[in-house]
Write a structure and sequence with these properties.
By secondary structure, this protein is mainly alpha-helical. The protein folds into two domains: 63 residues, no CATH class; 96 residues. It is built from seven helices and two strands. The chain has a two-stranded antiparallel ribbon with strand order 1-2. The longest helix has 34 residues.
């Protein structure tokens, strides 16, 4: 019997632990009809190239490596700020915080332009990490700005 590699965990089928065995048997992929709906929803924001997308159970997901990093970063950025971590960062930066936000686009842009110009290649890890960096900073910045706006509105209305 040949050893089949799992696209999810990259270990041989015969060496999986019981937990991974249950993981591999569970279909994490949506039914074909739902896959098309999800793909259409993300088509306007992602190129969805299968060669640049994470695969689950051998099927590419509806977003690429970079977008996966961005979306994961958005979740982490919001949850970190709401949990109090980095609470004073944006206040300390004041109006210069927007430059940190713009600066978080630099690694993403460099990672994108290198292969376009033929200077170097990039891989799924660099695409996901640069997306994650931008997503985390963007979510943290926007969440902080929204929370500040809510606090200012509440303060201006006074006690009721």
């Amino acid at each position: 019997m040949s050893e089949k590699k799992s696209p999810v965990c990259s270990v041989s089928a015969t060496s999986r632990r019981p937990l991974m065995s249950g993981w591999s048997r569970t279909r994490l992929v949506l039914p074909a009809g739902m896959q098309e709906v999800v793909r259409r929803c993300f088509a306007s924001v992602c190129h969805q190239m299968p060669s640049r997308s994470p695969h689950i159970d051998g099927v590419p997901i509806a977003i690429c490596d970079r977008c996966s990093g961005i979306y994961f970063g958005l979740v982490v950025g919001v949850s970190r700020l709401l949990s109090g971590w980095g609470e004073g960062l944006w206040a300390a930066l004041g109006r210069y915080g927007r430059y940190l936000l713009l600066g978080s686009l630099v690694p993403l842009g460099v990672d994108w332009i290198g292969p376009v110009l033929g200077l170097w290649g990039n891989g799924p890890v660099s695409r996901a990490l640069t997306g994650f960096l931008f997503g985390t900073v963007a979510a943290s910045y926007v969440t902080d700005r929204l929370l500040c706006r809510v606090a200012r509105t509440a303060a201006s209305e006074g006690p009721q």
